[in-house]
Design goal:
Largest sheet of chain A: 6 strands, mixed
Helix content of chain A: 25-40%
Oligomer: heterodimer
Number of domains of chain A: 1
Helix content of chain B: over 70%
Structural class of chain A: alpha/beta
Distance between the termini of chain A: 37 Å
Shape of chain A: globular
Shape of chain B: globular
CATH class of chain A: Alpha Beta
Order of helices and strands of chain B: HHHHHEHHHHEHHHHH
Radius of gyration of chain B: 19 Å
Distance between the termini of chain B: 18 Å
Largest interface: A-B, 31 and 21 residues
Strand order of the largest sheet of chain B: 1-2
CATH superfamily of chain A: P-loop containing nucleotide triphosphate hydrolases
CATH topology of chain A: Rossmann fold
Largest sheet of chain B: 2 strands, antiparallel
Bound molecules: adenosine-5'-triphosphate, magnesium ion
Number of domains of chain B: 1
Radius of gyration of chain A: 18 Å
Number of strands of chain B: 2
CATH architecture of chain A: 3-Layer(aba) Sandwich
Number of helices of chain B: 14
Order of helices and strands of chain A: EEEHEEHEHHHEHEHEEHH
Strand order of the largest sheet of chain A: 6-7-8-3-9-10
């Protein structure tokens, strides 16, 4: 069943066309990887889906419902949560308070504070941060803050997660750990994921399907193995002659 | 939790005992202290919890005073006071939408400018009406005013404590830390900021009305005096605004200070206010409450 459809979406910033005529769908339970060079428009795509900014053209729908014009908090309560490439923790709050507020406000069923605390703690446990619950979020390492981004998204109760480079800047063992926990979380909560990642091996391993953006255009889509030998992709990634 | 309640309870007990001294000087000082506590606690609901620092709370105070002055004699006193709070809250809701779109120093300046604008509008209105200051005959005596001020201080302190721990408070603290991230996890930031702004305006409106009764007249320059805004901010900074203790300490400190200074060197008061503000912002951002808690350093 189709969870999300992106239909003919373009986004211009002044003269710059960050996305042009991008169309694809994501099925429920699927993990879709997104690759593309710096500035290809990956983060812009996530921002538009999450309600930060409006497409210049096109439509984005969750099931049958158009998300255009909805505020980000509304979209979150409809079940889509994003993480930020440049982490945005609530630095002066404790790690636990970071996820409790996500549980309190992100869930459409309006949990009580006590309930939200339980859900928050579960999300921290899922990403391995439970032992840091009482520390201030700003004292976490980068790896910790990336995991907190994921925990916050999980705590909102969203079924659809947009993960923007949650492995960037991590050491190889940390990447392996993140891969493991993402896999566990998506199974347990039957999540649909869209994952932006430059760590190619990780992306290939995690994704059912990969979309390739290049200068704002969707130039290829297919299973990881197909993408790895797609001539267009090879050409833009490794230059002509490849 | 227990620790953070000790000081409010101590203040509360002192406030209950105070009238039995029978000293009108002490009760007068207590009245001023209670008004300050009510103002600063209200201010923290917006400014400490969301990070939107208002330098214009005098506008709510002034509007409250104006409402009470206008309704004097026409409405029973308690109704006038409630109306003062209501008008201040509604005014905050109306101007909040545009004003809360800007953050940081822009918000500070905008709130200050707004308060000045309203002050001059009221001055113009009053001169059109041919009234330059309104006398209020038959104001309640000091004991009654003190009792009301004490109740306001208690409500504001309890409110600040409760809000901080509530669902609303958690949302406000999150948006203070990062508005975009807060939105992304479902916090309706626009609505929450507006609610906080309105909540922080109501009690200052009532306090303004009460203060007008204390002086028994209304005069716009005095009712909308920006010193009220400066004093609130300075009390919050010096006392600290991380929890409900700070405003109590800040208000007490300045009430005592102004008793000492007003009597001898009234001109020096603003200078001392400024110096303390700079000193605390630079070196003791958590305020007196931070010193007591053993964490004078970095503010949250
Ligand atoms: N708010 C904005 N205003 C103006 N230009 C923007 C804005 N956001 C993104 N851009 C531009 O749009 C293009 C796409 O940016 P985007 O952040 O989506 O790329 P990306 O694929 O996520 O890149 P990276 O791998 O570096 O994260 C870039 O040229 C960027 O400079
Ligand atoms: Mg990006």
């Amino acid at each position: 069943m189709t969870a999300l459809s992106v239909e003919g979406v373009s986004k211009s910033f002044g003269g710059l066309r960050a996305l042009s005529d991008v169309t694809f769908t994501v099925a429920e339970g699927e993990t879709v990887g997104i690759m593309g060079a710096n500035g290809a428009g990956k983060t812009t795509l996530f921002s538009l889906i999450a309600g930060h900014g409006r497409p210049t053209e096109g439509d984005i729908r969750l099931g049958e419902r158009s998300l255009l014009g909805l505020s980000p908090d509304r979209i979150c309560r409809l079940g889509i949560a994003r993480t930020f490439q440049i982490v945005k923790p609530f630095g002066g709050l404790t790690v636990l308070d970071n996820v409790v507020v996500a549980a309190l406000y992100g869930n459409a069923d309006r949990p009580s504070q006590r309930d939200a605390e339980a859900r928050g703690l579960a999300a921290l446990t899922a990403v391995g941060l439970a032992d840091r619950a009482d520390g201030l979020a700003e004292t976490l390492t980068l790896s910790g803050q990336k995991r907190l981004e994921v925990a916050r998204a999980i705590a909102t109760g969203a079924r659809f997660l947009l993960l923007d480079e949650v492995m960037a800047g991590l050491t190889p063992p940390e990447v392996a750990e993140m891969l493991g926990l993402l896999d566990a979380v998506r199974r347990r909560h039957r999540l649909t994921l869209m994952v932006i990642e430059h760590v190619m091996k990780a992306l290939m391993q995690l994704s059912d399907r990969i979309l390739v953006l290049h200068h704002g255009e969707l130039i290829a889509t297919g299973a990881p193995a197909e993408i790895a030998r797609d001539p267009t992709v090879l050409r833009v990634y490794y230059g002509e002659g490849a | 939790m227990i620790r953070s309640l000790a000081l409010p309870i101590l203040f509360g007990l002192a406030g209950l005992v105070l009238p039995f001294t029978g000293s009108s000087y002490l009760i007068g000082v207590g009245f001023a202290l209670c008004c300050s506590i009510a103002l600063v606690q209200s201010w923290t609901v917006l400014s400490a919890m969301t990070g939107y620092v208002s330098l214009g709370h005098a506008v709510f105070y002034g509007l409250g005073a104006y409402v009470v002055a206008l309704s004097w004699g026409a409405l029973p006193m308690p109704v006038g006071l409630l109306l003062a709070g209501g008008v201040a809250g509604v005014f905050a809701l109306l101007v909040g939408m545009p004003v809360l779109r800007v953050r940081g120093p822009y918000f500070v300046i905008l709130t200050f400018g707004l308060a000045e604008l309203v002050k001059y509008l009221v001055i113009i209105l009053e001169s059109e009406l041919g009234s330059f200051s309104r006398l209020m005959f038959g104001a309640p005596d000091l004991g009654v005013l003190y009792a009301i001020a004490f109740a306001l201080a208690a409500i504001a302190t309890a409110g600040a404590l409760l809000i901080r721990r509530s669902r609303l408070g958690r949302g406000l603290l999150a948006l203070r830390e990062n508005e975009e991230a807060a939105e992304t996890v479902g916090v309706p930031v626009v609505r929450l900021k507006l609610v906080a702004f309105a909540l922080s305006a109501v009690i200052p409106g009532v306090v303004g009305g009460l203060a007008a009764m204390r002086t028994t007249y209304f005069e716009p320059m005095q009712a909308f005096d920006p010193t009220v805004s400066f004093t609130i901010v300075t009390m919050a900074v010096v006392g600290g605004s991380d929890d409900a203790r700070g405003p109590l300490l800040g208000a007490a400190f300045f009430t005592i200070l102004s008793e000492v200074l007003w009597a001898r060197l009234p001109q020096v008061y603003m200078v001392v206010l400024g110096l303390l503000l700079i000193l605390f912002v630079l070196f003791i951002p958590r305020g007196l409450a931070g010193i007591f808690a053993g964490r004078p350093g970095k503010a949250a």
